[in-house]
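Supplementary Methods S3. Complex input for the 2-keto-D-gluconic acid-bound model.
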Amino acid sequence: MKVYTTRIIPDAGIAILKNAGCEVVQHSESHDLLKEELIKICQDFDALLIAGHVKLDEEFFSKCQHLKAVSLLSVGYDNVDINAATKYKIPVGHTPDVLSGATADTAFLLMLAVSRKAFYMYDYIKQGKWNFYQPTANLGIELNNKVLGIFGLGRIGIELAKKAKGAYNMSIIYHNRKRNEEAERLPGARFVSFDELLQQSDILSVHANLSAETRGIFNKDAFAKMKPTSIFINTARGAMHNEQDLTEALQNGSIWGAGLDVTNPEPMSKNNVLLTMPTVCVLPHQGSATVETRSAMAKLAAENIVAIFEGKQMPHTVNKEVYAQ
Ligand code: 8YV
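Predicted complex, serialized as C-alpha cells:
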C-alpha cells in the first residue's frame, strides 16, 4: 500500500505506516502542490495524508476515486468537500482530542499576552524605546474574576474554560447551536444567546467549526455589541471573523484588544495594521504546534490510514456514512 503525505510529518506517524508495511512518500518542498499536481501524484497512491490547508474538492475526489483513505493531520476539515468524499465512498479521517490541550494553551497565551500588551512591549524594547519609566503608560488589564465567553464549547473550549477558571476564577458563558449539557457540568458554564455572549464577555474566545453558519459571524454588527473593554480571541479559523471589521472595531474602540492564531486571509501580510497595535497579538496558526501534540496527531493520522488497509474503520472518521454504503 502506498501513502503520500503533503508535508513532512513527525516520525511517530511514519513509523506506524512503515510498521504496517506501507510505502511512504512525503512532499518535502516548502510550497503547496497545485490541485492538478496533487491529482496526478495521487494516481500512484492508495491513501493520502493531508497536512496544511490543501483544498480537496469535488473535482479532486472525482479524479481520485481509487483512494482508499484520506487522512487529515488536523481536527478541522473545512478544506475538504466531505459530501464529495462520501459520494465516492472515500473515508476521511481527522485528529480530534489530542490537540485540545495545546490549542487551549494557545488561546490562554493570547488572552494573557493581549491583556498585558506583551507582543507590542517586546517590539518596543527591540525598537530601543525602553527608556523613561512612566507609571501611567502601557498599562494592561487583569483577568481575575472576568467573564470568559466561549463561542463553540466543545473539546478545546472546555480545556480553555478549565484553565481560565483555575488560574483566574473566571465565570464561563458559552454559545453553541445546541446546549452542551455534558460540557456545562465541567467548567460550570452557562448557556447564553449569541447576542448575550457578545454583550457579556470580557474575553470572547472562538472554538467553533467553520461552516456556512459560522463563516464571517464576527463582523461589524457583532463587534459593535461587545464591551469596549473586551478582548476577542480566535484560535479556530480566520474565516469566522471579518478582519477589516475587526480592525475597525479596534480602531474605533468597540473592543479593547484581539489575539489571533488564525487570520483572514492566511498567511497575514507583514504590513497588516493589526501588527502595529499595542493590544493585538498574532501568531501564525500555531495552535497545535508542540512536539507532543504534533507527534500524537501524526500517530492518529497514520492509525486512521492503517485501519482502512486492515479492513477496519478509522478510529476517527468524519464521514462515518461511508461504512454503511
Ligand atoms: C493546524 C488545526 O492544522 O487541527 C486543526 O484543525 O487548525 C491545526 O492543528 C495546524 O496548526 C497547522 O496549520
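Residues 46 and 67 are 5 Å apart (CA to CA). The radius of gyration is 21 Å.
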